[in-house]
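Box 3.1 A note on notation
Throughout this textbook, protein chains are presented in two layers. The first layer is the amino acid sequence; the second is a token string describing backbone geometry. Keep the layers aligned when reading.
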Amino acid sequence: MASELEVQYDTHGPRPADAVRRIDPPQAVQRVERSAGQLDVWIRHNGVWLGRFITDDGAVTWIPGSHLRPL
């Protein structure tokens, strides 16, 4: 639930619509560190695109786009 609020808001209020890109259905990706999971949304934060990375056990982490690779 907290990660969904991070998608909708940043420290200054609601995120602009052009700073959020949802992926439906979620795409399977791999982190540079060799763990696999799902990517379901991108947000732009401080000029960097971050992907919401969800592991098979449900853990959520925000990962810079440069650290993600398609499976």
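The longest strand covers residues 20-31. The two ends are 26 Å apart (CA to CA).
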